[in-house]
Task: structure prediction
Amino acid sequence: MDRILFGDNQFFGINHMSEEKARNQAMKFRDVASILRVLDTAYDLGIRTFMCTTHDRIADVCEYMRARPDRYGEFKFYPGMPYAHKYANAVTELGILGAVKKYIPGSFLGTLFTGGKALATKDFIAMMKLMVDAEMKMFEGLNTEVIFLQNVVTDLLLGLELKDVFKSYADHIRNRYRAEPAFFTMNLPRLLDLLEECGIENPIICSSVNKIGFRMCGGIELYEKTIRERKFRPVAMSIFASGAIAPREAVEYICNQEKIESIVFGASSKSHIQETKELIESMSSRNP
Amino acid sequence: MIKAGLIGLGKMGLSHYSIINAHPDVTVSAVCDTSGFVLSAIEQYAGARPYKDYKSMIEREDLDCVVVSTPTSTHAEIVQFAMEQGLHVFVEKPFCLDLEDGRRLIECARNNNRVNQVGYHFRFVGAFAKMQELLAEEIIGPVYHFTAEAYGPVVLRPKGMTWRAQKAEGGGCLHDYASHAVNLIQYLIGRPVRVGGSVLKSIYSKTVEDAVYATLFLKNEVTGQLSVNWSDEAYRKMSTQVTAYGTRGKIISDRQECKIYLREEGRGSLQKGWNILYTTELTRPVYFYLRGEEYSAQIDYFVQKIKSGDIQNINSFEEAFQTDQVLEWIIQDAEQRR
Result:
């Protein structure tokens, strides 16, 4: 994994600090062209990995980049699936079974297709795989060497202790996509315990890691100890705790957690991307 | 260990299941849902025993408490049965559709001496808790007016296939979204005593209202506007905001931040003019995180109340009943207008 991963929250009006800022971002990134402009800037500054949700608009980004392999040949996508609000809204509208049917391709044709068969026989693992495949469709032909499960789903499954689902997800990502299964979570120590019980070794886990312990469930000391002592590949997100920590202080803290492999950040302007990238690189080289 | 049973495994039910199952003092021994589809999944992969009928679950299992997340119209009979069997009850909001049911259940909880909590989770959001504290200190002086708003993208087309599109089951924006805003006002400012100018507006739905507008009147001539709409696509998810106007300033709060404007020098660290307190400093850590700290915080509160045997809990049946009353007044007021 690259040291720096470029995130996409800013494109979808997600801001954990302020609804006003979130709205301003939603207005700024009202179309795909505005997203592509920022991605071009990041790419030209040397960033090669885009960590993104499976939002409809990302499908357009994928299509654009797929058509221009000369320009974006080195670009890697790290999908995070599913875009949870899509499913949450579908569940509210259609119920759980209705939502599953909506997102399993072919299921409306009854038992003729795998989707319908999985539904009829209540083969939930098969359904989960079909849903992963539906989400992955937009990335066809692009480089996706690491595939993440979004934290709403990871943490729901974690609370329910659905080990078989974690195992099958990991196997499916490895077998079908030749990719590394990875997980977002807000409960890092607990997730790592469960993944080890599932036999998923040395997993890639992306979690909030920041100096003030924001959204680090289990506490900052336990996080630091987990990162220091246990076998997994940590990726840090929310390193600025939505702006509550000054950039230099935030990056310095992360770079002192030596086993963190990669850092995700999102930004909308060239100067901001450049500053953050340079800060991470300079502090990382100080702590090789 | 506290033994819990879950009744209803829809969107909220599954989320509660995950959150309470992760609690260090609780074990989920049984779950109940009418959908065979969901039950099979639980049976195959999770540990809890599945039931289709909540009565047999409660009778056969040795439970301490239940979490009820079924359509609102079914709350009354399930909650009453559980209470009569001696169980502590956490039930999703809103409480009951029929005020008589609500009155009976308050009595039932009192007689059986059980923890009785309703899932108005906004009270566990740091920014609203801070607002409540500041208002109680009268930092902006006496409140004379407020606005309570909630917007989100739940219904964006006519076709609704779940109980949320059925009035008789407790569907509609009034019971789903507006109940939160009304309950927050009770918590932050006080209990409405009457309502006026109520409008229940259908925008896309055929069977229920998609927006609620009303004026709320409190004691001491405090007034406020309720403006709620669950058919607003410009919002990514539910967004709830309360603004309180006082003689010495105002406070605006949402899930993320508490913004305070003071006309004069404030107390403590608060200054004249704008003060902004962010969620990062207002949020207390929780034992497990799913969708927001407030969901775990309310379940933890429920568990702690059971452990301590103290049934004087917040978000009690009585407080939720007062919210139901206001919703009922809004319905009556809107009908008269028509």
Observations:
- Chain A touches chain B through 48 residues (CB under 8 Å).
